[in-house]
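Dear support,

I submitted the protein below through the web form. The confirmation email said the job was done, but the results page showed an empty box. After a refresh the structure appeared. I'm attaching both so you can tell me whether what I see now is the final result or a partial one.
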Amino acid sequence: MLVNHTTRYLQSESAQKEIEVGTLVNYLLIDAIEAGASDIHIEPWESTLVVRVRLSGVLTELVHLPLALMEKLAGRLKVMANLISYQTGLPQEGHAPANSELGGAELRISVFPTVRGEKIVIRIFDPSNRSFSLANLGFEEETLQKMIQLLDRPNGLLLLTGPTGSGKTTAIYAALCHLVQRHGSAISISTVEDPVEFHLPMISQAQINPAQEFTYPIALRSLMRQDPQVIMVGEIRDPETAAIAVQAGLTGHLVISTIHSGSTAGVVARLINMDIEPFLLASSIAGVLGLRLIRKNCAFCSQPYEPEPAALRWLPAEMIETANFRRGAGCPECLQTGYGGRTAATELLVVDEVIRDALLQKMPTRALQQVAIGQGMTTLWQNGLRRVLIGQTTIEEILRVIAVDQA
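What the results page shows now:
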């Protein structure tokens, strides 16, 4: 567990007399923000209320609290998020605005009833911990240059895919900021999101509200009459949204969005399953970017090591001979994790004439993937291995993040 403000407070004399819940919550939030966490999980276990933080995508224990504090802690967080404090049997979601005590961080708070009590997950939006620059995302140089070329197009559909927490929103925000820097006030950019995670300069952002029937399709239809050049759609999750996004990409707009799929090439099958005709996809899709976030070795304690034989079996023999295998030993700088920060591993499928023909032929996902590789696409697995060979990360980390069937 991490040494932190919370632990010191709990060991102090004032806390021994009576724990002040408002102070305790503030310390929990400050500890998480200072550690660079993306989420805080507060969950009742058998005998303790455990608090964990997600650091570089991995949950790490912060502190164990007495179960007796659960109701007070939940009540305090519900008040912060303007939720119904006495309601315990139903899920609730709310938003706590930016707070100067927390360095301007905003919080999204989700409360979920379990058989042991309420589980609370807090998503942290820390403006000081986010930079929206394409150059700082850690993209491979080849991917970065192709991505910039795709953003220079006047129209088409650019899709990002990857699991939750793989950096899709950050990459899209960086792409939008790139367009603003390039064109200034001469470009009109509009977004429809669920929710708006950060407020971007010179960009018109809207947040859907299904309770008032303000959904993605309704927002997009209205947005088409707002004369935008670039439209960002938070997520394509239903056939109606997919159809409007494809149509917008065909009619002179650059549309950037995310879509969940098992693989980069699998995005096409997902859209066909949403009743989008292959000839429309062939005409509208400009590119699909697959994203994964991988932890980098700590710069302070990284040292040579020999990976486990089970991990090495995925590498060709000639690669093993020349590889510079390194791993962090764990130190105070990396909170004993051996890792410091994350970078992106990518897979960019650029739709050219050959790929268009493959789309029109309704090629299965695996065959489409092979065609894309033949056209020069570097896979997630290959880009991940490159980082292992230069000692930037470990083979175990690549195997954790990138599925072996994508090798």
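Response: this is the final, complete result; the empty box was a page-load delay. The chain has a mean pLDDT of 92.
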